[in-house]
Amino acid sequence: MILHTLSVSPRHPGFGDCLLAADTGDTILLLGDAVYAALEGSEACREMQEHSARVVALDTDVRAAGVSSAFVSIDMAGFVALTEYYPRQLAWY
Fold first, then answer.
1. For residues 24 and 2, what is the distance between their CA atoms, to the nearest angstrom?
2. Measured distance CA(52)–CA(20) in Å, rounded
3. What is the CATH number of the domain that holds 75?
4. Which of 47, 48, 49, 51 is nearest to 25 (CA)?
5. What is the pLDDT at residue 6?
6. Do 38 and 65 form a contact (C-beta atoms < 8 A)?
7. How high is the mean pLDDT in each 10-residue block of the chain (93 residues)?
8. How much is the CA Rg of the chain, to the nearest whole Å?
9. What is the pLDDT of residue 46?
């Protein structure tokens, strides 16, 4: 079980690497430019929706980007709760 904090745009090679590394039982948290992957109807959104890992987005970054997230948005307290729940974290940037 790993918390993947993904902060690169869907066009960045790290985005695809994260999807390859994440597995069932993991959570991918979209931060920064990665929230653009939450755009409904985009190829990146489709890939994330079909992935076996749970996907969530940081609400402040979603609002800052001016997008409407296709995924559950969490606040900073939710982010902290994820870091407490998952024994390991992998940052993708």
1. 10
2. 11
3. 3.40.1260.10
4. 51
5. 98
6. no
7. 97 96 97 94 93 96 91 96 97 95
8. 12
9. 94
Structural domains counted in the chain: 1
State the CB neighbour count (10 A cutoff) for residue 65.
18
Are the C-beta atoms of 76 and 60 separated by less than 8 Å?
yes
Residue 16 CA to residue 61 CA, distance in Å, equals: 20
Q: What is the pLDDT of residue 27?
A: 98
Domain of 29, in residue numbers: 2-92
State the CB neighbour count (10 A cutoff) for residue 76.
Answer: 10
Angle at 11 between CA 32 and CA 27, to 5 degrees: 55
Query: Global pTM?
Result: 0.94
